[in-house]
Design brief:
The structure holds 2 protein chains of 2 kinds. Chain A is about 0% helix and about 50% strand. Chain A is an all-beta fold. In chain A, the strands form 2 sheets. In chain A, strands 2, 4, 5, 6, 9, 10 and 11 form a 7-stranded mixed sheet that branches. In chain A, strands 1-3-8-7 form a 4-stranded antiparallel sheet, with no helix packed on it. Chain B contains no helices and 11 strands. Chain B has strands at about 5, 10, 20-25, 35-40, 45-50, 60, 70-75, 80-85, 90-100, 110, 115-120. In chain B, the strands form 2 sheets. In chain B, strands 2, 4, 5, 6, 9, 10 and 11 form a 7-stranded mixed sheet that branches. Chain B has a 4-stranded antiparallel sheet with strand order 1-3-8-7, with no helix packed on it. In chain B, a hairpin with a 5-residue loop joins strand 4 and strand 5 (about 45-50). Classes of the chains: A mainly beta, B mainly beta.
Chain lengths: ~110, ~120
């Protein structure tokens, strides 16, 4: 099973600042990685897939990058609605696995 | 608009069974692979099971293999999860999720609001 480790666990920032979130895989996932956002009490929302492709309707301030075992989600300028928990997910191998999450807080 | 509505959750004793349903609307259900993802209270997401568009290919997390069965009824646009031999550690909110079409089909682009399963004596 591929283990995904996200860091940091918590990121404390202000609106307008840049957020950089990391996801490291226990083995290469060959860009088969997605990022989701989850607000309290809500279902996750797909932001990025295949490491760098924005999902439908996702604002351009969200971008993804990386290769091999190391991936990054960048939010260029935080909006109030971006303060949430973010998860990465790999589809390189079954079972599909998720990371432990990064909470972006004010 | 895509809509996924889960039902069937509740309180059950260890060793008991539940069947979750997910009613889909707003898209051609039979064209899409689907899946179940769960989240224990305050915990992270855990993929549980998946099924392809024609229902012939199913996959399970090791933690539920042999106890849970995923199925679909395309005539009703409904996804199911039969859960048997439930354990306390199965307590979670269970989300139904649609998988992306095409080569990126193991990511989830639409999610329901989930149904809560509590396993407790």
């Amino acid at each position: 099973e591929i283990v995904l480790t996200q860091s940091p666990a918590t990121l404390s920032l202000s609106p307008g600042e840049r957020a950089t979130l990391s996801c490291r895989a226990s083995q290469s996932v060959s860009s088969n990685l997605a990022w989701y956002q989850q607000n309290p009490g809500q279902a996750p929302r797909l932001l990025i897939y295949d490491a760098s492709t924005r999902a439908t309707g996702i604002p351009a301030r969200f971008s993804g990058s990386g290769s091999g075992t190391d991936y990054t989600l960048t939010i260029s300028s935080l909006e109030p609605e971006d303060f949430a928990v973010y998860y990465c997910q790999q589809r390189r191998n079954w079972p599909l696995t998720f990371g432990g999450g990064t909470k972006v807080e004010i | 608009e895509v809509h996924l509505l889960e039902s069937g959750g509740g309180l059950v004793q260890p060793g008991g069974s539940l069947r979750l349903s997910c009613a889909a609307s707003g898209f051609t259900f039979s064209n899409y692979a689907m899946g179940w993802v769960r989240q224990a209270p305050g915990k992270v997401l855990e993929w549980v099971s998946g099924i392809n568009g024609d229902g012939r290919d199913t996959k399970y997390a090791d933690s539920v293999k042999g106890r849970f069965t995923i199925s679909r009824d395309d005539s009703r646009s409904t996804l199911y999860l039969q859960m048997n031999s439930l354990r306390v550690e199965d307590t979670a909110r269970y989300y139904c999720a649609r998988r992306l079409l095409g080569p990126s089909a193991s990511y989830f682009d639409n999610w329901g609001q989930g149904t809560l399963v509590t396993v407790s004596s």
